[in-house]
Design a protein that fits this description.
Elements (H helix, E strand, L loop, with lengths): L8 H17 L4 H7 L3 H17 L8 H6 L7 H18 L2 H23 L10 H9 L6
């Protein structure tokens, strides 16, 4: 069993509420979240919808998480994502059955990786060149015989 079937809506509500209570009190994450979120009850409802959508397929969440996080790019770092995951793992481990916690933790790790790639990873503006191709282009077409 992958644990997803043991996750309920009430589990998600409890986890989201407890997790973000911890985030708000955290010395590193708290200042960022508390500055960014103006209406905590509405935000917690939206985050519960998000987790319901990703874990249970409810389709209730209609937002754009990457866009929301890009607004705060200057304050984010990979270390803060690690801290977020640590608190998430502690909270899920404390509040739900082990198989449900494992499923929630695996999904959170995927989400954190995806957000970090979207926020921090950028391809160079010019494609990297291949030395063999550069040499062929400099010498022109090959002449045989």
């Amino acid at each position: 069993m992958n644990g997803v079937s043991s996750v309920s809506e009430s589990d998600l509500e409890r986890v989201v509420e407890a997790f973000y209570a911890r985030v708000r009190e955290d010395d590193r994450l708290g200042p960022i979240f508390n500055d960014a979120v103006q209406d905590w009850p509405e935000h917690l409802s939206r985050l519960t919808d998000f987790w319901s959508s990703v874990m249970l397929g409810s389709g209730r969440y209609k937002g754009q998480p990457v866009v929301a996080h890009l607004k705060h790019k200057s304050r984010l770092s990979p270390e803060l994502f690690k801290r977020w995951l640590l608190l998430w793992n502690q909270t899920t481990g404390d509040l739900v059955a082990a198989d449900a916690a494992a499923a929630l933790q695996a999904k959170a790790a995927q989400i954190a990786e995806s957000l970090q790639l979207a926020i921090f990873f950028r391809l160079p503006r010019h494609p990297m060149s291949c030395p063999a191709m550069d040499k062929d282009q400099q010498n022109g077409p090959a002449h045989h015989g």
